[in-house]
Write a structure and sequence with these properties.
Layout: E1 2-7, E2 32-34, E3 39-41, E4 44-46, E5 49-52, H1 63-72, E6 77-81, H2 84-87, H3 102-111, E7 115-119, H4 135-140, H5 149-165, E8 179-181, H6 190-203, E9 209-213, E10 226-231, H7 246-249, E11 286-291, E12 300-301, H8 306-319, E13 324-327, E14 332-333, E15 358-359, H9 373-392, E16 396-398, E17 414-419, E18 424-429, E19 440-448, E20 455-464, E21 469-478, E22 481-486, E23 489-496, E24 499-505, E25 514-517, E26 521-525, E27 530-534, E28 537-541, E29 550-555, E30 560-566, H10 568-571, E31 574-579, E32 582-587, E33 591-595, E34 598-603, E35 609-613, E36 621-622, E37 626-632, E38 635-641, E39 651-656, H11 677-682, E40 685-690, H12 693-697, E41 702-709, E42 712-717, E43 720-726, E44 732-735, H13 741-747, E45 749-754, E46 763-764, E47 776-784, E48 786-791
Parallel strand pairs: 1-19, 5-6, 5-13, 6-7, 8-9, 9-10, 10-11, 11-13, 12-46, 24-30
Antiparallel strand pairs: 2-3, 3-4, 14-15, 16-17, 17-18, 18-21, 19-20, 21-22, 22-25, 23-24, 25-28, 26-29, 27-28, 29-30, 31-32, 32-35, 33-34, 34-48, 35-38, 36-48, 37-38, 39-40, 40-45, 41-44, 41-47, 42-43, 42-45
Family: Belongs to the glycosyl hydrolase 35 family.
GO molecular function, one term: hydrolase activity, hydrolyzing O-glycosyl compounds
Region (Disordered): 1-22
Length: 793
């Protein structure tokens, strides 16, 4: 047996309160506060989850549904850069119309109970041209991002315009703005950060929290800004031949180190410039840029998998995070510039060439609203935080006796505990990208508490499988029942069948066990396995995870509790929301949103289905469509008898084969540059795509999904660029409803795919041999996502 031991120290003194210059608006019903260790709301510990979504990179007509997807995914606050160059590319013409409607976006957040965090810059980064600063501004200001008066004067005008858009949307007026970020990644100008905050306040902007990014050895102006941190599973901004960066590797270890000197290190030194570190004993550990994915640059094209995102997020909770903020949570598309392209590139002096249009970021919700596996991975964690975040936030992170010897130690199991001294949550991460971690056989954990007996779990050693990451409860009270420990992850609770049901997620390869405090148990009924009295506990074992794995407990105080153990795959289909007059669980592997009396299902399945607990009184109605009802364990499953899907085959015709790959070219910092437009026009293979008329008549939810190889690909309608991608081994999706339908009908859709030279200094993750360098479309299909509005009968 391999013992893993951890001793919980005596709980720390209460956190500092009232020591920071942050205050909510007077009289608000749920005032936001900050202690030295966690945030509060309405006097209760608060664990927010924020997700980045750039409104100006997405069609305004679709904002509302996408915000509802984010909310269903467990996001409680939407963060967005307010990108100056998107609004004022031409000096003096500040636009807030159409997809630039900042106020409309913030009002939609408020309508659906989502907090809003505008990141107002002026410099944003965000892989935008000039970091978001307009060209005309750079032509005028000799020293941007300083207190140069020639820079501050237009900033003052810009902040005034932003403030007018957000007028009366602050907390004092019942609005959604809970925080405002000043600048981004400015590590050595604390005085300028103070100036920008003052200018924003003078313009009329207000929020209970003013924040700043804090990575890279930042120097902050005293305690005026709340430091926010980040961490990514991969990076496009490092060298093509640099391997997996250690600054990314570190995020798959449990540690109490908050800073990440690697984020944006291509634009600044990685070493701290003699600054004192941010005093972590005075600020809670909050994040704004945990990697929900990663952009793809020309010279370096990382792949980020769902498990990478999920393991990183869960690890940060175990490390001590009290605010999970993701960048990006929702992908998008750069708007076409009126004067220039709006992506960052070598042409703008930036070290990395980015695609002209796509900013998909491999995010949980994609450039066209695609629901990806990482969305389901993160939703599972966000359900945990929604139900138990108020307990987790005040808990301190404690590391085990035996720690990894360094960032290349793959043999020592990585784990930690969040605890209040008597109870807690045990976190394990046995996954990291690129370099798989081994199985850990014969594993058992002993957690010693200062004010309570130690816990040892499981009842017999288990193997922690390679790739697993999970959270187990320690002395969790559930409606009168004490769950001493479980080898399954808490998901959420729901009232069903006269019981409070705690849903747990099993881990593949580890048999679920439930240890109940015998003093809180009157009786136990298990669907499978057995309940055995053992040393003051009732040990429930042998439960086969699934929708029918409900352990029914009558507690000693008369309450009734259910413990439902779902298998790992099913647990990742759990949604929780208000549906048809009650709080319900919905199981669905597709997209689900909750909107008042209506639940909407978005699915590309031929016959979509979903399961509900507790079941509504009658079968939900889908206009014009029959819904079948059947039992699915303790759930009720509904199947929609949808009309057959049309043929998904795509007519793709090769018009011109590819020529010889252009010679590689290098640009800023000696990194490979994207080929010039002339090569795309003359060398690329060209294809014509025939779009069926029935799809043109109803383009919403239709994707052209392409599997291709080569260097870069671009799609055109006529001579207008409508989509692009650098090859990284991922599929290339093009949303039909983003295209000018009449132009497509008249002129068709053209694809150009450029080959890659064998000696190009380009890193593409996971690609062996050279066959992928030859330009070509390998497979194409139409993916049609249909939507069903489910209403009460």
């Amino acid at each position: 047996m391999t013992p893993h031991r951890l001793h919980v120290p005596t709980p720390s003194a209460p956190p500092l309160t009232g020591h920071l210059p942050f205050a909510d608006a007077p009289g608000v019903p749920d005032p936001i506060g900050v202690t030295s260790r966690w945030l509060t709301r309405g006097g209760r510990p608060w664990f927010p989850v924020s997700g980045e979504f750039h409104y100006s990179r997405y069609p305004a007509r679709e904002w509302e549904e996408e915000l509802l997807k984010m909310k269903a995914g467990g996001v409680t606050a939407v963060a967005s850069y307010v990108i100056w160059i998107h609004h004022e590319e031409i000096e003096g013409r500040i636009r807030f119309d159409g997809d630039r409607d900042l106020r409309g976006f913030a009002e939609l957040c408020a309508r659906h109970g989502l907090d809003f965090v505008p990141r107002i810059g002026p410099w944003c980064h965000a892989e935008v041209r000039n970091g978001g600063l307009p060209d005309w501004l750079l032509a005028r200001a000799h020293t941007p991002r300083t207190d140069d008066p020639a820079y501050l004067e237009p900033v003052r005008v810009w902040f005034a315009a932003v403030a007018e858009q957000l007028r009366a949307l602050d907390r004092a007026h019942g609005g959604p703005i809970v925080a405002i970020q000043i600048e981004n990644e400015l590590y050595d100008q604390p005085g300028h950060l103070r100036t920008l905050k003052r200018l924003a306040e003078e313009a009329g902007l207000s929020a209970p929290l003013w924040t700043s990014t804090a990575w890279g050895g930042v120097q902050l102006p005293g305690e005026e800004l709340l430091p926010l941190y980040g961490g990514y599973p991969e990076a496009f901004w490092t060298e093509a031949d640099g391997g997996w960066p250690d600054t990314c590797r570190k995020h798959f270890f449990f540690t109490h180190e908050r800073d990440d000197e690697g984020i944006g290190a291509d634009l600044r030194p990685t070493a701290v410039r003699g600054a004192d570190p941010v005093p972590v004993d005075r600020f809670p550990w909050a994040t704004c840029e945990l990697g929900g994915g990663m952009a793809v640059a020309y010279h370096r094209r990382p792949r980020v998998e769902a498990a990478d995102v999920g393991a990183l997020g869960l690890t940060k909770i175990g490390c001590g995070s009290v605010w999970q903020g993701y960048y990006m949570f929702h992908g998008g598309t750069n708007p076409p510039g009126e004067l220039t392209p709006l992506q960052e590139s070598h042409a703008t002096g930036y070290p990395n060439d980015l695609p002209v249009l796509t900013y998909d970021f491999q995010a949980p919700l994609g450039e066209y609203g695609q629901v990806r596996p990482s969305y389901h991975e993160l939703r599972l964690q966000h359900l945990l935080l929604a139900g138990f975040g108020h307990r987790i936030a005040p808990m301190e992170s404690v590391l085990p006796e035996r720690l990894p010897t360094g960032q290349h130690d793959r043999e020592t199991l990585r784990w930690a505990v969040r605890t209040d001294g008597t109870s807690g949550f045990l976190f394990v991460t046995n996954h990291q990208p690129h370099e798989p971690l081994p199985d850990h056989p014969d594993a058992a954990f002993t957690v010693g508490f200062p004010d309570a007996p130690p816990l040892t779990l499981p009842s017999a050693p288990v193997t922690v499988p390679s790739g697993a990451y999970f959270c187990w409860p320690l002395r969790l009270d559930v409606a009168g029942l004490r769950l001493e420990w479980a080898t399954a992850q808490p998901v959420c609770t729901v009232e069903a069948g006269g019981r409070t049901v705690l849903v747990l997620a099993a881990t593949d390869g580890i048999a679920p066990e439930l240890a109940l405090d015998a003093d809180t148990v009157a009786s136990v009924a298990t669907p499978t396995g057995e309940a055995t009295p053992v040393a003051g506990r009732v040990l429930v074992s042998g439960v086969r995870p699934g929708t029918d794995a409900l352990v029914e407990v009558d507690a000693a105080d008369g309450s009734r509790v259910g413990l439902l153990v779902l298998d790992a795959a099913t647990a990742r289909t759990v949604y929780r929301g208000d549906a048809w007059g009650a709080e319900r669980l919905v199981l669905c592997g597709d997209g689900v949103v909750f909107d008042g009396d209506e639940v909407r299902l978005h699915s590309a399945a031929a016959e979509p289905s979903f399961a509900v607990l507790p079941a509504p009184d009658s079968v939900p109605v889908v206009a014009g469509t029959r819904v079948r009802e059947a039992a699915d364990g303790v759930f009720t499953r509904y199947s929609i008898e949808a009309a057959p899907l049309a043929d998904t085959a795509v007519a793709v015709t090769l018009v011109r084969p590819a020529g010889r790959a252009p010679d590689p070219v290098t640009g800023v910092q000696g990194r490979a540059s994207a080929p010039a437009d002339k090569h795309v026009e003359t060398v690329a293979a060209e294809y014509r795509v025939d779009v069926p008329e029935d799809l043109l008549q109803a383009p919403a939810g239709v994707l052209l999904r392409l599997r291709w190889a080569g260097d870069l690909a671009r799609a055109y309608v006529g001579d207008v660029l409508v989509a692009d991608q650098f090859y990284s081994g991922r599929v290339w999706d093009i949303g039909l409803d983003r295209l000018p339908v009449e132009e497509v009908r008249a002129r068709g859709l053209r694809l150009r795919v450029l080959p890659l030279a064998a000696d190009a200094a380009v890193h593409v993750a996971g690609q062996g041999g050279d066959g992928w360098r030859a330009a070509g479309v390998r497979h194409a299909e139409w993916v049609v996502t249909r939507s069903w509005a489910l209403r009460p009968a």
